[in-house]
Amino acid sequence: MRFLKVLKYEFLEYFFPVLVINGILFVLIFSLKYIGYNSYFDTSSSVIKIFTVIMMFITLLGVFCYIIFLGIIILKSLYSRLFSSEGYLTLSIPVSIDYILCSKIIVSTTWVLLSIVITTLWLYSFVDTRFFFMLKDISSFYLLWKTFISIINNICLIFLILAILNTGKIVRFKTITGILLFFMILFVSSIASLSIKYLAFGRIWDFNATTTELFLHDLIDLFITIIYYIIARYLIKNKLEV
Predict the structure, then answer these.
(1) What is the mean pLDDT of the segment spanning 59-75?
(2) Alpha-carbon span 139 to 159, nearest angstrom
(3) Nearest to 30, CA basis, from 124, 130, 127
(4) pLDDT, tens digit, for every residue of 18-36?
(5) What is the pTM of this model?
């Protein structure tokens, strides 16, 4: 399938550097958890204690830089490959625009999920392990699903903002305009989502909601995400000049 080829290209573009950085951070985090801390509390050597503290800061810096790196490659994938001079080459590929956009959304979502996993592992190296066992009592699968929906929603919203900025002939103050548009659209869509939930269920919050109600709440959020995508797709396909 052509879609799988496009998706494969998107993944492979940054797969190797992401894999290497993940491997390094994985080793650092678990070395810190199972070697560094044990040595820190079991020894009186100041050298080992200093070394452990240095490892802590290196790991923290590594996680921070990794998140920035993922942010850069996501923006490069969403912006540079579509709305800069490279957009002409991307949109000239003889495949459906849905293949291009969906592959970028899927890969960007994967990178965001990776950053969440790495950050969670870093927190794991500092927090009592029992804290993470507690998560098993809190619908872990639902939390993952909710996180996934939230990530997809925000990525599609960013796509929509970029499409508006680059098809609306906005030249000055693009960054400020984009930030303002982001929060304005987010506010309007949140009001719409809460209104629908209130009309459908008689309340706007998820507290004490049944499993069915939670699922329907997520469908509403997913519906808004699809609206973001449809509008962004229309602007990119019909209004974008590259």
Answers:
(1) 81
(2) 30
(3) 124
(4) 888 878 877 777 777 666 5
(5) 0.76
